[in-house]
Amino acid sequence: MNRNSYPSRPPWLITLTQFIVDLNLRKSWRLVVKRLSPRSDAVVFLGDMMDGGRDNMSDEEYEAYYTRFRDIFKPCSSPSPTYYIPGNHDTGLGVSAYFSPHADARYIAHFAHQQWNNNGLNYQISMADHTIVFIDALGLVEEDRERERLGRRYGDRAWKPLPGGTVEFLNKFSSRAYFSVSSVPENVKSRQTGDHREPIILMTHIPLARPYDASCGPLREKGTIREGAGHGYENTLSEEASRFLLSSLKPVSIFSGDDHDYCTLEHSIPNTQLQVSEVTVKSFSMVMNVQRPGFQLLSLVAPSPSTNQPAQHLHTPCLLPDQIGIYLSVYVPLVVLSLFGILVANVYRILYGSGRGDQGDRRAGVYSRGAKPRPRSGIPELGSTDEPLMMLDRTREGSDMRARGENDESRGLRAEDASNRTHAKKISAQFLPAPAAQSPLRQRHSALSWTTSHLWLFAENGAPVERGLIWGCMRDVSVVAWPPLGVFAGIAWWMFHS
Question: Does residue 419 belong to any structural domain of this protein?
């Protein structure tokens, strides 16, 4: 993916998504290479190597994009040959102002095999006595549209295909080569002509035509593949183009891409009794609308003259982990559970503390908010605006003293304290405002309640920071989060730099 893959997302989210996707691709590719090395003889990319390869961008940006791709899909220690065919996200399909006029040239320069004709877009290789044919399906679509516009048919001498195009390549291939299907009855083998005796395997980006309600088999996650076309894409080849492909090559197996999900379907080769299976291979990326990405493993077995064993080919889908499902079903619940545990621990700490001393300190911190130091005897300054608060403090102090006992000395102290309070009331009463409908003391109680909750959350104005709920949670999150984040960062650094 690149910056144009999700244009509606903010830049920071695009950067994060690209980092996660690249990391997942690196891990998946290294796992595949490690498991299959050194037994893999070749790697085939069925198109759409780069999601924005066709985008209108500068040469420098394209080079950086291509370098990212090559860095992710590094070859193993003993590199296997790698083969590519173009996809609609590599070179585009049709004409659009959003597509670069240099998309074809860039693809040919970076991915095409220059040792073959036709600019390396259509070519064939031989491996284990099998012929693998790679075609430019996008070029075939363009030629097929032109043929339909002219009202011509395939094989019509009046219609000349594009020089160096897919149709010309297929015509030349079928004129000099035919195939040998080793797994069909002898009466079907008798249809062979020409000198070519190897089974043919077709690689195409766009799947072949099919009935509207054709099933893709039990391994497909959802939906099916249906005919359709739009801006820069075509879901399947046309019926005429598909028949032309099948009759020209008569392949024993077909592998296609583009759809991102797995699909298997049987095709009938025109004018024969042959059936051929087409497999649409899953996307290797985690963000292509499939839960489990994957790839296809193809094994080719050469014929054995000593045992009279014919050539065989076997293939199986290989599924990768559901990375998004792991994030949502494992990582997210663990994060939520950890945050909830931190919240509960901090609420418990604030409500109950570590002992009665902490509770007393918190009460003192609340009641002394904004108050000036004063003697314990409680004689207020004249005109003091903190009189209600001091009265609350003296009332609590008087209650504590009464709880100590009923001895004479205690009664004397209480009498003296009561006398002082009476004297204080007489003096301060001269400066108190007239009674109102709403008591100032009730207003003060409301202010104290808001102040208490504010301190409980943030612990400002002299209270220890670690005693606030918000700051306590933030501190604990930082302590708990750095070990897993450090491990994740270490793994990511190793994946990107090794």
Answer: no
Q: Tell me whether residue 173 is in a domain.
A: yes
> Residue 119: is its pLDDT beyond 50?
yes
Contacts of residue 210, defined as CB under 8 A and 6 or more positions apart, other chains included, come to 225, 227, 236, 265, 267
pLDDT of res. 386: 46
Tell whether the model's pLDDT for residue 396 goes beyond 60: no
Q: Residue 258 domain-assigned? A: yes
Tell me whether residue 92 is exposed, middle or buried, using C-beta atoms within 10 angstroms of its C-beta: 0 to 12, 13 to 18, 19 or more: buried
Q: Residue 84: give its domain's CATH number.
A: 3.60.21
Q: How far is CA 301 from CA 78, 133, 377, 441, in A?
A: 22, 17, 103, 95
In a domain? residue 145: yes
Residue with tokens 């894409």: 233
C-beta separation of 83 from 45 below 8 A:
yes
> Rounded mean pLDDT of 195-214?
90
250-273: pLDDT as tens digits: 999 999 999 999 999 999 999 999
Q: Averaged over 404-422, what is the pLDDT? A: 50
Q: Give CA–CA dist 475/469, Å, rounded.
A: 10
Phi, psi of 338 (to 5 degrees): -65, -45
pTM for the model:
0.74
Q: What does the block give as tokens for 319?
A: 């599924």
pLDDT tens-digit series, residues 141-173: 999 999 999 999 998 888 889 998 999 999 999
C-alpha 463/C-alpha 367 separation (Å) is 12
Enclosing domain of residue 163 = 11-321
Q: Is 200 buried (19+), middle (13-18) or exposed (0-12) by CB count in 10 A?
A: buried
When divided into structural domains, the chain yields a total of 1
Rounded mean pLDDT, 177-182? 44
Count other Cβ atoms within 10 Å, centred on residue 289. Answer: 11
The DSSP bridge pattern shows strands 312-319 and 263-268 to be unpaired
- Tell me how many degrees the CA angle 259-264-269 measures, rounded to the nearest 5: 110
